[in-house]
C-alpha cells in the first residue's frame, strides 16, 4: 500500500505503466457477465479512475461487496482508455476490499441538498462539491503563507485564550473550569486562570506587540464570535488572516490588502486541478468573469463620506436607510461593487463612533483611518486600519468607550516605549473562500460549521 500512486497522477501519466497500485473509495460499480467497471476516487482530485476488473482475478469473488462508499485496493496495468472520457484506465490484476459500506451509506445518489449534506459533515467531503471546496481551501491556505513569506512577514501564533476583547463588542465565549450549574459565590479567583478568560475574536492586539519588535508579522488561525446570527456569512468559529506592519500608514495598508486579494484571485485563476472549472460550471457560472475583472482592474478607492453620498443619490430604496454615521450593510456594499463601480472598491475614513478604540483618529476629529475592501458577490472581504500610535489619544479612546484602562495597560505600553506608526487588516478566510469559489453559505466552506444551536461533532 505504501507504493500506491495517487489517482491525480495516474490520470496525468505520460505513458502506460505496469503493476500500478491504486486505492480509494468506490463511487459506482457496474457489472457485466464476465467483468465489472469501478469508478474509484481517492480524494486527490475531482476526477475518478475507471477500473476494469475481469472475473477470476484475485479478490473478484467479493465483487458484490464493492458497493458505493467501500474502500478498495487495486493492482493492475495503466492502459489507454478506448472510451474517450479519460485518457487512462486501470486494468486490474487483483482487487482487495479494505472496508465495506452497506446500503445505509447516505451518498448512494447524486443531487443531495447542501442542507442535508451539512447534517453528515463527516461524509460530505466525499462528494464532488465538498471535495473541490476543501482541496481549494488547502491550496489557498498555502497561497496565503507564500504571499506573506515572500514579503518578509513572520508568522506569529497568537493565543486562542485571551483576557482582552479586541473589538470591544463583548461577543465572546467564556473559558472556564467552573461548573455553571453549581451554586455558591464562586469568583474568578476560583477559576483556572484566576480571572475572566475568553476565546479570542482576533489575534490583532497580540500581533501588534510582535510587529513592534519584528517589523512585519501575520497571524492565521481560528477565531470565535458569540454572535447570535444565522446569516449565510456568519459563523461562531472561523479562521482569520491578520497581517500587521510597523512603519506603515493607511495608504500602505490599502496597498497591501489589494495585493493580498489579487494574489489569491491569481492563485485561483491559475488552478489547473479541475476544481476551479467545477465551480465555474456547477456553482457560479459568472465566477471566472468576476475573478478576471478583479484581477485586471485597480481597486477603486472611495471615502466613507463619498460612499454615503453615492448611496443617498442612487434613488434606491434600501432595507437599511442610508445616512452618515451608519455601518454599511451588505446591501449597500453590494450596490457599490456590483452596480455603481462594477468591481472592487476600498472604502476608507469611517466615522469613529462605529469603529473600535484602536483605530487612528483623523485630523477632522470625526473619522478614523480605517478601510474595508469590498468585492462583488460578497461585500466586505477585508477590514483594517492604521492603529492609534499616540498614547494620549489611545487612552482617551479607551475611556470614551468605557473600557478598563488597567486591562489594556500592556497594549498602551507599545505607545510608551518606542511607538511607531503601524497598520494592519483582518480577512475572514471563509469569506475569501466564498468569494473565490462562488459557494454562497459560510457553512459550506469550513469542515465542521459552528453556528447558533449547531455543534454536532
Walkthrough of the structure:
With 457 residues, this protein is of the alpha+beta class. The strands form three sheets. An eight-stranded mixed beta sheet has the order 6-9-10-15-14-13-12-11. Strands 1-2-3-5-4 form a five-stranded mixed barrel. The relative contact order is 0.11.
Stretches where pLDDT falls below 50 for ≥5 residues?
none
**Nearest-angstrom radius of gyration?**
26 Å
What is the count of helical runs? 12
Percent of residues in β-strands: 15-25%
In short:
By secondary structure, this protein is α+β, with helices and mostly antiparallel strands. The protein has helices spanning 7-11, 114-118, 128-150, 204-214, 250-269, 275-283, 287-296, 304-312, 330-340, 391-400, 409-416, 429-437; strands spanning 17-31, 35-41, 49-54, 71-80, 88-99, 154-155, 161-162, 198-199, 216-224, 237-246, 300-303, 345-351, 367-375, 379-386, 422-428. The chain is elongated, with a radius of gyration of 26 Å.
